[in-house]
Amino acid sequence: MKYVFILTLLVVAAAAGLWLTAVVIRWNDNMTQTPRIMPGERVFSMPAGVVPRGGEMTIPREQRDIAAKRPNPVKSSPGSVALGRERYVTFCVPCHGSEAKGGTTGPVATKFIPTPDLTNAELQRQRTDGYWHSYIVVGGAVMPAYGEALSSHEAWHIVNYLRSVAQK
Ligand code: HEC
User: Fold this and answer.
1) 92, 112, 134, 137: which to mutate for ligand 1, most atoms within 8 A of CB?
2) Are the C-beta atoms of 61 and 134 separated by less than 8 Å?
């Protein structure tokens, strides 16, 4: 009788052990085997002419002349310049230098391509706000585009900052 009891106990223990193992294996497996969607892995083409909610039309680089005509919707103010400066420091200093003086004042520019002096009065006069906004959003001849890192609004703030450092 005693053996029957022990045997039952063993069977129950074995079943519990098996069940627990199954749970652990499935848990670990789930954690590592679930499918991941990596950014940019799947690209859904959008119907022509649609604009994402809260977004705006991006004018391609080839149509810079059209983008150059856009007026700056963000009025320059100390707040706007400060925000523009903050974004400039984050994204642009590596190539354009902390004072926007270009050349090789940016640590990356020494190994990349020396950048133009953005404070230059002549360049500042030639370029419209829209032109520089377009440069930031869709990039330049070799300059990378920042449309994915910055909102269009932030790009206008940066333009306001650049205007504030113009040489007189
Ligand atoms: C990887 C280096 C790099 C970074 C980062 C970079 N730029 Fe540039 N930028 C360049 C180079 C090189 C040029 C000149 C060649 C060209 O036109 O592409 C340039 C040109 C420009 C011009 C001059 C356009 C003109 O001819 O009037 C402006 C304005 C400008 N950049 C603004 C910015 C701003 C604002 C940022 C940050 C959001 C930024 N850049 C980030 C490399 C960079």
Assistant:
1) 92
2) yes
